[in-house]
Structures are given as C-alpha cells and as structure tokens.
Amino acid sequence: MKNPVIKITVRNFGTMTAELYPDKAPATVANFLSLIEKGFFEGLIFHRVIKGFMIQGGGFDEDFSQKHADAIKGEFLANGFMNNDLRHTRGVLSMARTSDPNSASSQFFVMHKDAPHLDAQYAGFGKLTDGFDVLDAIASVKTGSMGWYDDVPRTPVVIDKVEIVEQ
Prior knowledge:
The chain is mostly beta strands. It contains 2 helices and 10 strands. The protein has one domain (5-166): Cyclophilin (Beta Barrel), CATH 2.40.100.10. Strands 3-4-6-5-7-2-1-10 form an 8-stranded antiparallel sheet. A hairpin with a 3-residue loop joins strand 1 and strand 2.
C-alpha cells in the first residue's frame, strides 16, 4: 500500500509536498487527512516561525482567530505508543501539542533543521519530499511578538490550501 502524499500551497511562497506515514502514526495521519478533506487548513497561517528549528501552522487565521479541531491521542513513544520511531529531522511533519500528551488536534509543524530533543516526545507523521526551498523561505521571514508567541511572521504566511495528491 502506498503512503498518502499531500501538497501544501503557501501564498507567495509556493508548494511543499510531503509523504505521510500511517504505519508510524495511523490516527494522526487519519485525522490530518480528514481535516484536509474538510478544507480545514485553507486560509490558516504559519503562526510560529523559528529559523533553524521549525515552522508551525494549522490553528489560526490571518486575524489570529483560533480555529479548533478535536484532540487526538498522541502517537509517540513517551506517551506509550511504540510504533512511531520517526525522528525529528529536516522536513519532518509533526503534531504540535500542549503539555497534555493527548492535546494535538490540527496544529502541525515542519522541521527546518534536525531537533533530536523532540524525538519520542511529539507525533511525527510525515516528511517533505519536495519544497525545501519553500520551507527555507518561510523559515527566513521576519518575525516579532504577538500575544503569547514571540516568533510570529510580521507579514502573514498564509496556507492557501492543503490537498491530497495520492491516497
């Protein structure tokens, strides 16, 4: 069985293509695909950008209004899920969460550089296959403080759409 492939189109930046790994994080991938099918990510932003670390999006629109989705069980080793050995290397997609290990919902991040301290602590579920230039361009935008985040792009980095290319 082939792994699902998605394409993330980011306004004024281009596209990133990623392969998802249901064998590593089945509920996470199913949740992400379900959100894509509902058009959940359209118009949301990458609201945290930390060059040399990651870009995070999937929870806020351009006005910084939060968009909610149901939480799922965290599929990572520290939460008792043994199948996910995906390392947080450049290009890996992973689920953002609070200190509650079962709080991930729609917010995800893409690793700009390797971050081994996240391994087994967050549910990695895919990896970029194309669009690393887009990742680098987004990671290089100017950021500032807004609310409780210190790394918000000064000009919104908008997700025009996320689509399933292969399933």
